[in-house]
Amino acid sequence: MCVESDGCEIEGCSSSDEVRTLSGSMSPGLKSSPSLHPCKPGHKFRAALLRCRSPAAAAGILSFGNVLNYMDRYTVAGVLLDIQRHYEVSDSGIGLLQTVFICSFMVAAPIFGYLGDRFNRKVILSCGIFFWSIVTLLSSFISKELYWLFVLSRGLVGIGESSYSSISPTIIGDLFTNNTRTMMLSVFYLAIPLGSGLGYILGSSAKVAAGDWHWALRVSPVLGITAGTLILLFVPEPKRGSADQMGGHIKARTSWLCDMKALAKNRSYVFSSLASSGVSFATGAFGVWIPIYLARAQVVQKTAEPCTKEICSSTDSLIFGGITCVTGLLGVVIGAATTRLCRQKTERADPLVCAVSMLGSAIFICLIFVVAKKSIIGAYVCIFIGETLLFLNWAITADILMFVVIPTRRATAVAFQSFTTHLLGDAGSPYLIGLISDSLQQSYTMSALWQFLSLGYALMLCPFIIVLGGMFFLATALFFLDDREKAEKHHFFFTLWDGSPVVPTPGPCCQVPL
């Protein structure tokens, strides 16, 4: 027999069961008592909701929310030509949309990381989703004279989405462990390319169906509000570190300043964050500019006309979105499977797989700009292979963080890693590529060919950044085992420490500098 927080009986429970209330607290199993009263219909509904709070269901809902997070982000990229034509802005001006979004995203990430390590995470997630959904919907009604306001709205959306990206992986990290955690994180991070691809497809399809690009921004908010509601109802709030091998509950936590010092000394964390910045730089630039680059390539090949109509062709956005969905699925699945096999050969498998995949990706991304002038199909093939290799490391990078950072500072670690990767990556890459393209176009006579070539020359910066990221993953492999061992010892220390002073050092932060 189990009881809810108000003392009513819940049918179908054994005496050893525990019931999780909607507030996230746990009620131990109790024997039947005359003071208990039968559940009312409302209480039975609540009990049914509680039984649906399985870890697998929670991971599925969080992954669905992550799909929507990235789908909303790249819906704008799917109608970028239309936005550029509507607001009459240059390449650098249109690149500013993504830069402002990412800047606000990365500034908010450490704040949400701090909150996520100390307060109810699912409430923060839901509020973030509701916020960006409402702002996205309102931004679709901004007039063409107020481009600055449209740019500002993308910044506000970045704040809302930052809460989700910073906190949700830590809930999955506390629900699963070992290979199961790797698999669940793979599913969660599959949402990045899947959501990005669906964003292109949704934006292009909604624009064509409605005959107006503004409708591309009016679909994802409805889905976002649905996801936020599901998180509030069905996602539990697990105790931090409850799923880790060492067991036990953490009895003490360190200050935010101590956490930041420890992360700065964690070499695997620092190098993997720098490596992720290379991935972020390339994906941010490609997400904004590749569809436009391919559209200009077709104009040069005389297989398409420049956009002079109110609604521009969405073919390239649709194809690029489809490729991103498929390559994301393949990349994450292949990455997880490859890592699992390589772990049988070496314990450094995680960073080594990331390094090899990034270096291989750089080769095919270089080939895109070689073949695009002659063959669009050849360019798509190179995009397919390059993106697949690039997407291999997303879930693996998150798993590296889970291995080398203790549970009580994971949300802070995820948030600060997000801040670093965006600061050095896609916060500036779309605007930088647009700025280089504009500068090259001003150097010579304006023509369709030179518009195409100037953007291609600017995008050639990306493969070099990817190679640099691969080098950082190789550096991560050098320190991975030592940092993982330190994290395990530090976690065990905190499950035993009761908060009393440690002699001769003044505190645990200095005792175990992780």
UniProtKB/TrEMBL annotation:
Membrane topology: Multi-pass membrane protein
Keyword Transmembrane helix: yes
Main location: membrane
Family recorded in the similarity comment: Belongs to the major facilitator superfamily. Spinster (TC 2.A.1.49) family.
Species per Swiss-Prot/TrEMBL record: Anabas testudineus
Molecular function GO terms recorded: sphingolipid transporter activity; transmembrane transporter activity
Protein keywords: Lipid transport, Membrane, Transmembrane, Transmembrane helix, Transport
UniProt GO BP: sphingosine-1-phosphate receptor signaling pathway
Domain Major facilitator superfamily (MFS) profile: 58-487
Subcellular localization: Endomembrane system
Residues spanning the membrane: 94-116, 123-142, 184-203, 215-235, 269-292, 318-339, 351-371, 377-406, 457-481
Record GO cellular component, one term: endomembrane system
InterPro entries listed in its UniProt record: MFS, MFS_dom, MFS_spinster-like, MFS_trans_sf
PROSITE patterns cross-referenced by the UniProt entry: MFS
Keyword set includes Membrane: yes
Lineage, top ranks: Eukaryota, Metazoa, Chordata, Craniata, Vertebrata
Superkingdom of origin: Eukaryota
Protein name as catalogued: Major facilitator superfamily (MFS) profile domain-containing protein
